[in-house]
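testing teh design pipeline on a random one, pls ignore if ur not involved
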């Protein structure tokens, strides 16, 4: 094997090890608690406890608005846009349409925090409460585009109708992994509140 092939093999091996380590780290990231009420394949009905989130709203196409919102919230939790200590990242990152029509990105705050414990957010970031709620979910992998999300949402709505579950609000997209995780290993969900 030539020197270039050895270098390429070593680089690929290092990248694979780094990706595996990052994947294991993300698997241990805090996620919100819920009671699993029903599970059928990729579909589920869950009862979530109340959550505290940091959120921001951004205009434009979903992917662009989500990327901008993610950066703004990352600057907040990693103490780049405010003084004080960092806040641990959790999963998933939530994205939905706000009442004003913009895209809202939400980071769930770690469960050890109460609202009064959280640092004052900068302009453009708000701290909000999400009450306990029942959510229908569909889980899938990959890096979804708008067509994928629309197809998954349609499948979830069909499953809800077949199980006599009435939607009580718009869908939310839940993304569990960073861009460093290969598409096939990524976990995504669409969540729809249930009446």
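output:
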């Amino acid at each position: 094997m030539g020197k270039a092939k050895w270098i390429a093999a070593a680089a690929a091996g290092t990248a694979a090890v780094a990706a595996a380590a990052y994947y294991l780290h993300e698997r241990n990231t805090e996620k919100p608690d819920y009671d699993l009420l029903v599970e059928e394949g990729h579909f589920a009905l869950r009862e979530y406890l109340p959550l505290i989130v940091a959120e921001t709203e951004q205009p434009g196409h979903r992917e662009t608005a989500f990327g901008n919102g993610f950066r703004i919230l990352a600057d907040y939790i990693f103490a780049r846009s405010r003084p004080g200590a960092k806040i641990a990242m959790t999963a998933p990152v939530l994205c939905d349409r706000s009442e004003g029509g913009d895209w809202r990105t939400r980071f769930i705050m770690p469960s050890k925090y109460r609202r009064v414990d959280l640092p004052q957010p900068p302009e453009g970031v708000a701290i909000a409460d999400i009450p306990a709620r029942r959510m229908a979910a569909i889980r899938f992998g990959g890096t979804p585009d708008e067509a994928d999300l629309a197809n998954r949402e349609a499948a979830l709505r069909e499953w809800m109708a077949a199980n006599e579950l009435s939607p009580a609000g718009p869908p939310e997209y839940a993304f569990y992994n960073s861009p460093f995780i290969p598409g096939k290993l990524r976990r995504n969900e669409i969540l729809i509140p249930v009446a």
